Amino acid sequence: MSTELIPLESLTRSERTLLDERYQPMRDILPDIEWEIYAPYVAAIEKLKKERNAVIIAHNYQSAEIFHGVADLVGDSLAMAYLAADTEAEVVVVAGVHFMAETAKLINPGKTVLIPSLEAGCSLAESITGADVRLLRERYPDTPVVTYVNTSAEVKAESDICCTSSNAVEVVESLGVKRVIFLPDEFLGKWVASQTGVDVILWKGHCMVHERFTPDEIRRFRAAYNGEIEVLAHPECPPEVLAEADFVGSTGGLIRRVGETQPPRVLLVTECSMAANVSVNFPNTEFVKPCNICPHMNRITLPGIYESLRDMKFEITIPPAVAERAKVAVDRMLAVGRGKSG
Questions:
Q1: For domain 125-207, which CATH number applies: 3.40.220.10, 3.40.50.12780, 3.40.50.2300, 3.40.50.10800?
Q2: Domain covering 210-288, topology
Q3: CA-CA-CA-CA torsion sign (160, 166, 167, 172)
Q4: What is the distance between the alpha carbons of residues 149 and 162, in angstroms, rounded to a whole number?
Q5: pLDDT tens digits, residue range 22-49?
Q6: Across residues 294-311, what is the average pLDDT?
Q7: Residue 293, pLDDT above cutoff 90
Q8: For the whole model, what pTM was predicted?
Q9: Residue 114 phi, psi dihedral angles, 5° rounding
Q10: Does the N-terminal peptide bond of residue 314 adopt cis geometry, omega within 30 degrees of 0?
Q11: Peptide bond before 141: cis, by omega within 30 degrees of 0?
């Protein structure tokens, strides 16, 4: 199968209409001259999706031309897990990082799951191994292991249950125990402990985006706007940053908060591509952002998605013995949080 890029002047009227519909939401955040570069890829990707019976699932941190231009389903990591489970497509392209693609494969073992770049990793996932979890189990016997989905399938396979930032508190409380091992995000674990009263054994893993935020930075933004700004922070940020926030939540939770409160001005303390994507739906809110970009998310590009669908690369495979055990932990998470994605 060969779907080549087509010059814009050669597109049919229906193809041009589709491109106009895709571009419409991001006209205020993506210049026309940039869209002219992206549009041929969007047209080719749309054709390939139909030919392959494929869907593209994109994380909230993806750039606008992906998030608005080609994604069929969007959300945070928990929402993506649900969407991967619910889709009837035969091929799932994950516009996110590697652990997200692995999670999609765990939930959909019979589907072909592709990731456009094998280099789209995660500092959290790379901070811990399955061997590390086994050592922790030896050190703290009979203590449940709760593992953030920002981990490899190998690590999930050594865990009792997974969680995301949106359901971590609920997952920990569902275990009904006084102490858990929480891996690998130290800051998210501290936040969970503060919300539950459960004794949390932590790992020194950090998100390379969120760990860079500082309380002084937040205070400077408040001062610059005379306090007339609502600060919303992701729980992967350091505790002293969360203490400066008006609200703490997952990426999906931050979006819901903006929708519920409709603040005149908001500061999203998270990956900065998200602010641009979310601003499209809230034209009456000014989005101020301290711009920390995830280099791994930015390894997913439109040309990469096009080549992924064209050549059916890079397919996610997980050893059956690992997949079977990891899926148990993911399924337990989905059973706890079903219906509360975000």
A1: 3.40.50.10800
A2: Rossmann fold (3.40.50)
A3: positive
A4: 6
A5: 899 888 888 999 998 999 999 999 999 9
A6: 95
A7: no
A8: 0.89
A9: -115, 150
A10: yes
A11: no
